[in-house]
Amino acid sequence: MEPQYATIFRKSFMGTAILQGLLRRITQSKSPTVEYTAWVRSQTSLQRLHDTLGEDKKHVKCVAGGDITEIIKPANLVILGFPPGELKAVFGVVGLVEKLRGKLIVSLLAGVSYEQIQDAAARNLHLLRVIPSIGAKINDSVTLMAETTFASPEQLRMASWMFEQLGEVQWLPESLMDEATAAGAACNGLIMVAVDAIVDASVAEGIPRSAAMKLAAANLRSSSGLLLGGGMRPESLKESMSVPKGITINSVLALERGHVRSAISDAVRQAIHYTRNM
Fold first, then answer.
1. What pLDDT digit, counting tens, does each position of 149-158 carry?
2. What is the SS3 assignment for 227-272?
3. CA distance to 85, 102, 112, 118, per residue, from 122 (Å)
4. What predicted TM-score, i.e. pTM, was given to this entire model?
5. Is 206 helix (H, G, I), strand (E, B) or coil?
6. Strand pairing of 60-64 and 77-81?
7. Confidence class of residue 167 from pLDDT cuts 50, 70 and 90?
């Protein structure tokens, strides 16, 4: 089942990435079967959204301000894409919660449980917690979905269809949602720090920055492909490249002297603990 109308409360990078991925799929298929509306608060945000979407903005109705209860009225799926700390303020808008009832509410609010959302709405919402990855923008997301009893099978099919347009969908018990969200976020951050450091070091040794960036990104993609579809594990991948007196093994040993492995593990665990206490 495809949603007929989808409204996105957008005040986040992820909300924009989802919209870009969905519109990219529409452009590729040449068959826009869903009517999308993106709501932002100000004209400044609206202009920024238009600039980001470029030519694709013709496939979405972008709205700044106005009566949000009327804007979401035709939607059968509403995505909440604002900072988690704003939940009570948003649900405090007069008449909004009543207009949300009966629709599938897809929450992108990291660290906010089904119970917390239901409590803020005084219950009776159809809910699905979803956390896409940053690859949503290019239809290469791994989207986490929390198992739920707050949505009908038909609504879950509708949401699955939408997020499958952005990449792979992974269902998890809600009890693991915060941990998986934090692990994914930490992975993105740690990888970007590593790539940035590799590029800077390469430039310092004479490699042009553009070439260093392409080299680092391509090697990251190749390694990911081998881990995901090549039947390899991190240990076997490292061993296969670590020939006697080789470059790879000496690089790894230099990292180990800097306690990088334990620092990465500590950063991931810190991210998980932080998310649990949001």
1. 999 999 999 9
2. HHHCCCCHHHHHHHHCCCCCHHHHHHHHHHHCCHHHHHHHHHHHHH
3. 17, 14, 15, 6
4. 0.84
5. coil
6. unpaired
7. very high
